[in-house]
Amino acid sequence: MRVLAAMSGGVDSAVAAARAAEAGHEVTGVHMALSSNPQSYRTGARGCCTLEDSRDARRAADVIGIPFYVWDLAERFHRDVVEDFVEEYAAGRTPNPCLRCNEKIKFAALLDRALALGFDAVCTGHYARLDDGVLRRGVDAGKDQSYVLAVCTPEQLAHAMFPLGDTAKADIRAEAERRGLQVADKPDSHDICFIADGDTRGFLADRLGTAPGPIVDADGNEVGEHDGAYAYTVGQRKGLRIGRPAPDGRPRYVLDISPVDNTVTVGPREALDVHEIVGERPVWLSERPSGAFGCRVQLRAHGEVHDCTAEPEGDLLRIRLAAPARGVAPGQAAVLYEGDRVLGSATIAETARVPA
Asked: Which parts of the sequence belong to the tRNA-specific 2-thiouridylase MnmA-like central domain (predicted)?
């Protein structure tokens, strides 16, 4: 097959490209330039899309012995990932930009261009497995990325390759060293790739400005003030800037963010309990179920997995949890599993506390 290997400049995508080439595929490496003003160097493990990353990807392609190109997708990335991220926070939701990048960039913009140029598949360094079109968790539970891939459609997954899904991360680094890849010990990028300093609140404030408003308790009593509701997320405990403790002395958590009246509501930890979730824009990786069915659901990247009953309702997905989950934030993904198999996903739109 003709395979386009997305090479970020990190160890995972380099080994994935090497494995695809070793398997006999005709591989071409491509580095996606996602920043219109890339920095020369990353800061430790923060950030990506730097000139350093591009050079590391090129050096890896040279070692593997495959052609290499840089594709400028900065405008598309800014529109579909960065602007979406800001808009979601402004609307009181908590987005996952990695998930959106897979949906809009790697398996839409990149894949569409690859297919138009005659490639058969896009290869990435994600830790997940494809088994006859079925998306499964990677064997390294600590690195599994099936959650952020669950927004991909069956048609997109039919043109995807994940060569690392059957291997632990430590073994990937050892393999990179054996192959002579200089990125073998390069730190993994983490946090949000386009916020290199890790200051999400500052990043949002620069784009949304200051918008002071009240912080209230569950009874509506004002207990503090914020500079912008967008800086908070459901389940947050630290950085609430509340001037006085709760009457019972217990910590407070963010329970709700209302952009309409610019209000952040806080309360005790147990008030975060959620029994029911409504998801929008569901994606099914097999035939759409006709009724309710039992499965498990993951509600955040690398989060817990919960027993549940899921039921399609028109263009929505209703999920009833067997036991309550805490800190479920609208804007995140709810990904359904049967064992290690991904069944589908939806974006969390609403949550509810349902009395026992």
From this structure: 202-267
Q: Any idea where the domains of the chain sit in the sequence?
A: 2-185, 210-271, 273-352
Tell me: is residue 290 an annotated ligand-binding position.
no
DSSP characters over 12-53 = HHHHHHHHHHHTT-EEEEEEEE--SS--SS-BTTB--S-HHH
Asked if the domains at 210-271 and 273-352 fall in one CATH topology, the answer is: no
Architecture of the domain delimited by 2-185: 3-Layer(aba) Sandwich (3.40)
pLDDT, tens digit, 9 for 90 and up, residues 273-284: 999 999 999 999
pLDDT digits (tens, 9 = 90+) for 319-337: 999 999 998 999 999 999 9
The answer for residues whose C-beta is within 8 angstroms of residue 223's C-beta and 6 or more apart is 215, 216, 217, 242, 243, 244, 252, 266
Tell me: is residue 144 an annotated ligand-binding position: no
The domain covering 273-352 belongs, at the CATH homologous superfamily level, to Translation factors (2.40.30.10)
Q: Is 10 annotated as a binding residue?
A: yes
Is the pLDDT confidence value at 187 over 90?
Answer: no
Residue 179 dihedral angles phi and psi, to the nearest 5° = -80, -5
Q: How many Cβ atoms from other residues are within 10 Å of residue 301's Cβ?
A: 15
User: 210-271: CATH homologous superfamily?
Assistant: Adenine nucleotide alpha hydrolases-like domains (2.30.30.280)
Q: pTM above the 0.90 mark?
A: yes
Q: Would you say 151 and 281 are in contact if contact means Cβ atoms under 8 Å apart? A: no
Residues marked as catalytic = 101, 193
Phi, psi of 172 (to 5 degrees): -65, -40
